[in-house]
Amino acid sequence: MKKYIINRVIRSILAILLVVSIAIVMLFTMISRTLVFEQDATIKKLSGDKRTIYAYNKWEDLGYLDFEQMSAMCKEESKDFGSCMITGSDENNRVVSLYKDKGYTIQYLNDGTPFASRDYTALELISKFYSRLIKIDNPTFVKDEDNKDLKRGYSIGLDHNNLPAIMCSGCEYQYQLYVDGKFPFIHQNIFRLDFGHSFPTSQGIPTIDVISTGQGKTVNKQVKFPSGNVSKSAVDLHTCKYKASSTLDHLDKNKFNNNYANCQSNYDSPSMISTSYMFGILSILLSYLIALPAGMYMARKKGKWQDKVGIAYINFLIAVPSLAFIYFVKLLGQGFGLPDKFPQLGYGNIKSYILPILILALLQTAGLMTWIRRYMVDQSNADYVKFAKAKGLSQREIFNRHILKNAILPIVNGIPASIILAISGSVITESVFAIPGMGKMLPDAIKSYNNNMVITLTFIFTSLSIFSLLFGDLLMIFIDPRIQLSTKGGTR
Amino acid sequence: MSERKIILSATDVEVKFQVRSKTLTAIRNVSLDIYEGETIAIVGESGSGKSVFTKTFTGMLESNGSVSNGKIVYDGTVLTDIKTDKEWEKIRGRKISTIFQDPMTSLNPVRTIGYQISEVIMKHQGKNKQEAKQEAIDLMRKVGIINPENRFDEYPFQYSGGMRQRIVIAIALACKPNILICDEPTTALDVTIQAQILKLIKDLQKEYGFTIIFITHDLGVVANVADRVAVMYAGQIVEYGTVEDIFYRPAHPYTWALLSALPQIGKKGEDLFAIPGTPPSLFSEVIGDAFAPRNPYAMKIDFEQEPPMFGISLTHFAKTWLLDPRAPKVELPDAIKNLHEKLLEVVNGGQN
């Protein structure tokens, strides 16, 4: 079994890498790169050489190409920087042709200054992505010329809340492993995924932070800083990063007794991922709570009026376009005084959640009920049910002891997938209720040519789907005795 | 025979099914007495109503079927009066058990063998889990499972087909029923396993003394296990009697045809005998003798009027106009004359 799982994990990882690689190559080679500026406000203000240089710099940032301006070329290849920088000089021509030979395309600015650029090949694109993907924090991370006697190493201590934490000096993050009141309660800063920065929306922020840090207003709380200073602040001390000594100001020195002063804030609203996940999980829970008993009941009353009512409900949900259904339920809900947009009452009020969760849940019930009813009916006709009846068991006993377990197996297989994939949010419902979740992230990112964000989401969604399938299968080992994952295979 | 106690008596039983707004009469006025401790075989081709008839003894008819006429009495209880499943639960498994054709699918694939045996013991005998387990293990040993303590917690897929049928038998016998209905219990098994299972059933019958109703279309099995045989055709019992009556003194042309089709008496190089035609549709009323269209001995009256059950001896009855005193005398077909000698010859020939 161990061997099977290792095999599956390896294959899953390969599948993820393949999908993400294809996405990267497609995004960077098949879509016109000028499109990334469609929604960029900065470039519209620029013209001429400035515009050209801005565009190439951005493309280099985004990983399209390697851009070299004349000064960079001269620094790299020439001993005589002064003459190299004179356009048309021998040294200048030598360096330029050197770059031409290296495979760079030479272009000229309006003032005649040459510059070189080279598009990355597909292979380079992929290898660049994966080489920076996983960042492991370590005590040698900080390279600060002004702080040569920085101690480097790990220590275990208590944080400002007097909870145990693993801390590090010399790492990017001070807190490597810590505990707090936020889900999932144990947090780490050791491994981080780096997908590059978001552009043009949320410019300059790492894509992973865009979707995973809090939203809304910052929240001020009494914070006891490492220096002993207690004041009202929004700072989340667990997220503090190293700040170079040259940039430390007196405010930082007031609060912190070390260089870990670059901290994130506490926000009043959870991140996009958390928001979507909360809605997703609650709605899945509700949909199973409704659909499982309903589907089972329909199967037991197959052909009777109760079953027919259920089938009518399922057909209604399938036939009515989901948008119409959403607005229908929304209108009904408004009649009960529920808000028609999430931000009206916001995160703090339970009323904000009722309609979206109810709608998300109801939309899922149709499919679930159909399947459960179908599995139940299938199993009720099985020979072992006939034999169980001949044994003298009552309908209820047959149902609870025999049919249920058999019918529920294929449903259970899908549960991890639906729970994990809840993270991806729902496009329509979130838009209708203006919920700041993940649902709109992917379409928005595609629309605004936010390549790094598209890749980030592709990576996250692919990984989640593939691993949730794996979890579903692993779950089966525990509930279905017939399944024994082995590479050898075969029972008697 | 007649002085033995009748354990189950069916009188004029008629079973109807509603199939897509049409009515199908699957059993037409069948009467049969079953004696305590005997083994009675019900034979007939597919669709003749063998299984449907016995399903009425335990209320196991499909939901679109019902006993529309007649009376079935088991040991003083009028089974045809039972309406609810709750009442049936006192009969099923406890008094009358059934084992089905396919042991591969008769057991719940995701419950342990032990669970499936002990749940019946717990339900019908009110024993606790530990006692039930002990009894289940004893039963498993009795039906020939080696090392039952270890195999108690195994699942059906870990058992072979023959072993599973043994478990099915163990479950059926868990509550010491008075009647065991075996609905083609060996059809899905290969020949050597068939013989083992038949022997097991007979051995258990000797020990427990239950009555067996054996449904089969394998006349070889009938000769092997049965005391009495009832031949069914198109929803009726057309002939019944002791095994000797049926095999050596058959009286109904359908029985003749069945026996003629025995592969054991076929000659090498010749085609096996097959009964021409198909059984009548049971959706419409059958006029006269249902077998008449396929019967080379059919007379005019066979197409007009249903024959009554003629008594040939105290134990032997047949439903054919040929037994009417006015009917012409008909000889047994050549193929099944001296069937005993022919079968002996096959057996001996096989040994040499």
Provide mean pLDDT of chain A, rounded.
88
Task: Output the strand order for the largest sheet of chain B.
Answer: 6-7-8-3-9-10-12-11
Amount of beta strand of chain B: 15-25%
General form of chain A: globular
Most extensive chain contact? A-B, 24 and 36 residues
- Helix/strand class of chain A: alpha+beta
Secondary structure blueprint with pairings:
The complex is a heterodimer of chains A (about 500) and B (about 350).
Chain A: H1 2-30, H2 41-45, H3 48-62, E1 65-68, H4 70-77, H5 81-84, H6 90-101, E2 105-108, E3 114-119, H7 122-133, E4 134-136, E5 153-158, E6 164-169, E7 175-179, E8 186-188, E9 191-193, H8 207-212, E10 215-218, E11 221-224, E12 230-233, E13 235-242, H9 250-255, E14 260-265, E15 267-269, H10 272-300, H11 305-319, H12 322-335, H13 342-345, H14 351-380, H15 383-390, H16 395-421, H17 427-432, H18 441-447, H19 451-479
Antiparallel strand pairs in A: 1-3, 2-3, 4-9, 5-6, 6-7, 7-8, 10-15, 11-12, 13-14
Helix pairs in contact in A: 1-7, 1-19, 4-6, 10-11, 10-14, 10-16, 11-14, 12-14, 14-16, 15-16, 16-19, 18-19
Chain B: E1 6-19, E2 22-35, E3 39-43, H1 50-58, E4 65-74, E5 77-78, H2 85-91, E6 96-99, H3 103-106, H4 113-125, H5 129-142, H6 148-151, H7 161-173, E7 179-183, H8 191-208, E8 211-216, H9 219-225, E9 228-233, E10 236-242, H10 243-248, H11 253-260, E11 310-311, E12 317-318, H12 339-351
Parallel strand pairs in B: 3-8, 3-9, 6-7, 7-8
Antiparallel strand pairs in B: 1-2, 1-4, 4-5, 9-10, 10-12, 11-12
Helix pairs in contact in B: 4-5, 5-7, 7-8
Account of the 3D structure:
The complex is a heterodimer of chains A (492) and B (352). Chain A is α+β, with helices and mostly antiparallel strands and 492 residues long. Chain A has helices spanning 2-30, 41-45, 48-62, 70-77, 81-84, 90-101, 122-133, 207-212, 250-255, 272-300, 305-319, 322-335, 342-345, 351-380, 383-390, 395-421, 427-432, 441-447, 451-479, and strands at 65-68, 105-108, 114-119, 134-136, 153-158, 164-169, 175-179, 186-188, 191-193, 215-218, 221-224, 230-233, 235-242, 260-265, 267-269. Helices cover 54% and strands 14% of the residues of chain A. Chain B is an alpha/beta fold and 352 residues long. Chain B contains twelve helices and twelve strands. In chain B, the strands form two sheets. In chain B, strands 6-7-8-3-9-10-12-11 form an eight-stranded mixed sheet, sandwiched between helices.
